[in-house]
Amino acid sequence: MRKFLSVLITGLVAASLMILPGLAKDIELLGAGATFPYPLYSKMFDAYYREFGVKVNYQSIGSGGGIRQLLNRTVDFGATDAFMSDEEVRVDDNYILHIPACLGAVVVTYNLPGVSGLKFTPDLIADIFLGRVKKWNDARIAAINPEVTLPDTNIVVIHRSDGSGTTFVFSDYLSKVSSNWSRKVGTGKSLKWPAGLGAKGNEGVSGLIKQIPGSIGYVELTYALQNKMPAAAVKNKSGEFIEPTVNSVASAASIQLPEHTRVSITNTNADRGYPISSFTWLIFYKEQNYNGRERKRAEELVRLLWWVVHEGQEFCRPLHYAPLPEDVVKKAENIIKQVTYNGIFLLKNR
Length: 350
Prior knowledge:
The protein is of the alpha/beta class. The protein folds into two domains: about 1-105 and about 280-345, Periplasmic binding protein-like II (D-Maltodextrin-Binding Protein, domain 2, 3-Layer(aba) Sandwich), CATH 3.40.190; about 105-250, Periplasmic binding protein-like II (D-Maltodextrin-Binding Protein, domain 2), CATH 3.40.190.10. It has helices spanning about 1-20, 40-50, 65-70, 120-130, 140-145, 165-175, 180-185, 200-210, 220-225, 245-250, 295-310, 325-335, and strands spanning about 30-35, 55-60, 75-80, 90, 95-110, 120, 155-160, 195-200, 215-220, 235, 240, 275-285, 340, 345.
C-alpha cells in the first residue's frame, strides 16, 4: 500500500507539470557547464526534444563556466560537479538551488602500451600528481601491481587547464586522503598544479592522454570507456581495490544526504563503494522572475528539471552513470517544488 501511494503521489505531481499553462514549444532552453555529465545530458536533451519538441541547448564548458554563466544570467540553468557554498548560493535577493542529476566516477586513466588493470593506493595517486613519483617502474607502483611488467618510462601527468568540477572532485578526494596534497595543492575547480600538462575539458584530457605514451590523468568514467582507455582500481577506505563501475559508484552514495543535496561523497565509507565518486548537479534560480524573464520560460524549465530526475534517469546506466537513488529523487522533487515566479510556486500541488 505504501509503495502504491508513493507511485500515485509521484504520478499526480507529474500530471500537474503536464498542465502548467502556457508551455510553448518555440522556447529554446539554454544551459552550460560541466563536461563530466555531457554524454548523458546530450542524450537526455535529445530525447526530451523528441518527446516534447522543446530544444535544450547545452554547452559543455566546465563547471566553473556554468556557474559563471548562471551568475551572469545568460543561461536558464548551469551544471556543476562542484557544489556551491552556503555563501555562494545567495545572490542578491535570490537563491541558487541544486538538484543532483546522476552519479559518476572520476577515474585514473593512463597510456601505457601493453599494460592494463593497474591498481593504485590513495597516497600513490597523490604523489604521482604531485610529481614525486616520476617513473612507471617505481617500487611503490610495482609493489601493488606484482603481476604487471612495468616499463622504465617517465610518467607524464595530464590535468585540466580550465575551471573544472572534475578537478574539484578529484582534488577533494586527494585532500581527504593525503596531507601532502591538502597542504601543497588543496581542493578547487582550478589549481596550481605542481606537475604535468593541462588540457581543456574531459575531452581534452582524454585526447591528450591518448596521444602521449607514459601519460596519466583523470577523466569521468564514460570518457575513458568511450575512448577504450583503462580505468584503474583504487583502494577505498575499507581497504578494498575497487574498479569504477555503475554499481560501485551507486554504492558510494549510501550516506545520509542533506535536504539541499550539496555534499561530497568522495572517500566513501561504503565497503564496496568506488572512492572517487560524485553527484553532479543542475543549478538554477529559486525565483524565476528576473531580468524580464517570461513565466512560460520558467514553467518549461521546471518541467525539464522534473523530467531529468524521473524519466531521464533511464539513460544513466547505458552511459555508465549511476541513476539517482529513490531517496535522492525525493529530495530533488522537494527542491524543484521550491521554484517560484513572483513568489508563487510553479508546481500546482505545492
